[in-house]
Amino acid sequence: MENTKENGLANYLAVRAPQIAAPTIISTLLLVVWQVGVEVLNIPEAILPTPLRILETIVLRWELLLLHSWPTLSECLFGFALAVAVGMGLGILLALSQLFRVGVYPLIVAFQVVPKVALAPLFIVWFGLGMTSRVLLAFVIAFFPMVVNTYAGIQSTDPIMVRMARASSATRWTIFRKIEFPTALPYIFSGLKIGITFAVIGIIVAEFVTAQEGLGYLIVFSEGNVDTPMLMAALIVLSLIGVILYAAIGGLEKLIIRWDVGQKM
Amino acid sequence: MTALHVRVSDFSKTYKTRRDEIEAIRAVDMDVRETEFVSILGPSGCGKSTLLMAVGGLLPMSGGRIEIAGQLVTGPRRDTGVVFQSPVLMPWRSILNNVLFPIECLGLSLGEYRRRAIELLEMTDLDKFRDDYPSELSGGMQQRVAICRALIHNPSLLLMDEPFSALDAMTRDAMNQELLRIWEEFKKTVLFVTHSIREAVYLSDRVFVMSPRPAVISRVVDIALPRPRDLSIEETPEFNAYVTELRQAIEG
């Protein structure tokens, strides 16, 4: 490795530049077509606002957007955290206990068949229009991928690896902590990525239905007012939140999983 | 004559399948003395690995008894180290931490054994890779790490299950040489499973030949070649006489 640092950076840029430039150019082009198309065809703002008009709405009415972003973000994280804790716990129990697998797994699968969104009205009956209902809806949607991925991850442990640990007099607990759990980590991270996306969906649907606060509420409210620029501005902020949450998990994954996952030893 | 280390008496192993029972191993007797290098040689699928794993306390047996240092084997023992067919290194651990894994399992002091781990890695020429991940090493290097790991807690008995069978011929020769060097230095008892006749002759004091299923020990051959041995011994007529004798024993 005689490469200097600048050389490495130059190489990196040479590889990455097209990867960054191509999507940037294409999305810019699309935005230009959108802007010009709407103006030329004289499409009313209530049907499709121009990108510049949406940007203007975000800039001018950022306080309203921020006000509704907080409940969405915090409830989403709350529901997600609950899903991670319960989902991983169940996944671990499923993997480690035969009894649990036989007794509880069919119930979890049966529950998964229920379209979770349809539970929203029931939650309102039980828990009211407040935060509890919304967090719970995010939780029930996000928890299944956590269960399944944790379980599958632990199941993917190489039996020879377990035998090797047993040869070193490892206890069952040590085998779980030092072999099965690290083996499951890449799967768990896939579960986290799916789970966070699902949690956002759960919160938005719950906000549609409870109509109290949050970006979901802002979207239906703007629709009612035929304020399409605001509706789309809220959509964009919502997507941004989704991207940031997803990227945060991706970053954490890169930080924790530094080994070559594909390689079997 | 050194003391008896491993005694296998009347060992048998039967597998139950859905339809019937398969008798894999029938009535095997085997004595291994301290610091002896003994190979179990036989065709693939004859149950030699099964026997080795039972000695390691990793497989239940169907009949007979296995004693190590006079004690009945009931499970994995602290005075035994095992090297498997594949390196089975944990991809998320550095080389050094892979070698130290048994120390963690046994609840011994990591600080104390870190030195020993580094010495073992130095001896196998791997010390410069100690902070690397296993995926950065070649197959032969990974198996050397596995040998270091098996030796870290200073076991008196080393069980090796076709440890070099996945390696190319040249790497395999080098690994055999290195294994003998390690064995000469540490004077462990080694029980080595292989299906390579030349490997068995090159390494061993004695070779137990196992027949196909249901397996029995069909022959025990003393390898009276001088030690220390290097690869040039494979050219001698004595070496090849042993190879011929073992081949005939296997072919029955």
Report on the structure:
The complex is a heterodimer of chains A (265) and B (252). With 265 residues, chain A is an all-alpha fold. Chain A folds into two domains: 1-43; 50-256, MetI-like (MetI-like fold). In chain A, 82% of the residues lie in helices and 0% in strands. Chain A has ten helices and no strands. Chain A has helices at residues 5-41, 51-60, 62-96, 98-113, 120-127, 131-155, 159-167, 172-210, 215-224, 228-256. Chain A is flat and about 75 Å long. By secondary structure, chain B is of the alpha/beta class. Chain B has two domains: 1-69 and 177-252, P-loop containing nucleotide triphosphate hydrolases (Rossmann fold), CATH 3.40.50; 80-154, no CATH class. In chain B, 34% of the residues lie in helices and 26% in strands. A six-stranded mixed beta sheet of chain B has the order 6-7-8-3-9-10, with helices on both faces. The longest helix of chain B is centred in the last third of the chain and has 18 residues, at 169-186. Chain B is globular. Chains A and B meet through helix 7 and helix 8 of A and strand 6 and helix 3 of B.
Largest sheet of chain A: none
Q: How many domains make up the coordinates of chain B?
A: 2
Query: What top-tier CATH class of the largest domain in chain A fits best?
Result: Mainly Alpha
- Average pLDDT of chain A works out at 92
Percentage of residues in helical conformation of chain B: 25-40%
Number of strands of chain B: 10
CATH architecture of the largest domain in chain B: 3-Layer(aba) Sandwich
Question: How much of the sequence of chain B is in beta strands?
Answer: 25-35%
Q: What do the pLDDT scores of chain B average to? A: 92
Helix-strand pattern of chain B: EEEHEEEHHHHEHEHEEH
The radius of gyration of chain B is 18 Å
Highest-level CATH class of the largest domain in chain B: Alpha Beta
Radius of gyration of chain A from CA coordinates: 23 Å
CATH topological fold name of the largest domain in chain A: MetI-like fold
